[in-house]
Amino acid sequence: MPKLTEEIIFDIIKSILIKEYKIKKHIDYNTSINCDLGIDGDDAKELLDEIAYLIFQKNYLVEFYNFDFNMYFSVEGLSIKLLLKKIKYKCLTIKDLVKYILEHNIFYENSKYKI
């Protein structure tokens, strides 16, 4: 069974950030997706979906349904009332995201869902 490692996950995330989001800044484990790179809202949701898809390609399922998206990212279309509260979001580092994925993935083999 192939093992999903920190390095594999980091490489997937970094690759997406460079290719899809055209990030030119230095990216390491301490880079914050929202605070350093400015990825937020629907873009952050799309990033998580793309990460899950590429991990799926490696025979692992990762679901973000337990991930507290609202702790790190704003939601598109927030009301003026919420904006006036000046919501403070926690910075999500790549290290934090890698840790979450390592703790919330399931290996599958010869799955009927394989793409």
Could you explain how this protein is built, in words?
With about 120 residues, the protein is mainly α. It has one domain (about 5-105). Helices cover about 45% and strands about 5% of the residues. Strands 1-2 form a two-stranded antiparallel sheet. Helix 1 packs across helix 2 (about 40-55) and helix 1 packs across helix 5. The model has no long low-confidence stretch (mean pLDDT about 85).
Question: Rough shape?
Answer: globular
- Secondary structure tally, helices: 5
Tell me the distance between the termini: 18 Å
The assigned structural class equals mainly alpha
Q: In percent terms, what proportion of residues is strand?
A: 5-15%
Taking all residues together, what is the mean pLDDT?
A: 86
Helix content estimate:
40-55%
Give the strand line-up of the largest sheet: 1-2
| Element order: H for helix, E for strand | HHEHHHE
How large, in whole angstroms, is the Cα Rg?
15 Å
Low-confidence stretches: none
Major sheet size, sense and barrel closure: 2 strands, antiparallel
Tally of structural domains: 1
Total number of beta strands: 2
What's a concise summary of this model?
With 115 residues, the protein is mostly helical.
Write the layout of secondary structure elements.
Elements: H1 6-19, H2 41-56, E1 60-62, H3 69-72, H4 80-84, H5 94-103, E2 105-107
